[in-house]
Amino acid sequence: MTSWTIAASETDVKEGKMKPVELGGTRILLVRVDGEIFAIENRCPHMNCPLQGGILVDHSIKCPCHSWTFDLRTGAYVASDKIKVNVYETQLKDGNISVLV
Q1: pLDDT, tens digit, for every residue of 27-57?
Q2: pLDDT confidence of residue 90
Q3: C-beta separation of 42 from 20 below 8 A
Q4: Domain tally, the chain
Q5: What is the torsional sign of CA 60, 63, 67, 70?
Q6: Beta-strand pair 69-71/18-23
Q7: pLDDT tens across 17-29, in order?
Q8: Is 98 in contact with 4 (CB distance < 8 Å)?
Q9: d(Cα 15, Cα 67) in Å, to the nearest integer?
Q10: Taking the mean position of all CA atoms in its chain, how far away is CA 83?
Q11: If we measure between CA atoms, which residue out of 81, 82, 101 comes closest to residue 91?
Q12: DSSP label at 50?
């Protein structure tokens, strides 16, 4: 069963920045790009490296361990859409970022 869970204050995630959070045992990375908040699994499927130390380029994040790059909108690995990380729906309400987990 999924539900909306407050993950952070809206002011905690600045433009072009990342904030790692853990919700119900799930490691999630919040990222703000062009004013929009994205929530993506904070784990590269290649070797479970945390994505939080990665490099943001537009709507993509490059894993800091082996440079695998994922689309923040879809979770797809840019070299093969058969490999993905989970993405989560977000909403802003009353100054908080909530994630559907």
Answers
A1: 999 999 999 999 999 999 999 999 999 999 9
A2: 98
A3: yes
A4: 1
A5: negative
A6: unpaired
A7: 999 999 999 999 9
A8: yes
A9: 22
A10: 16
A11: 101
A12: -
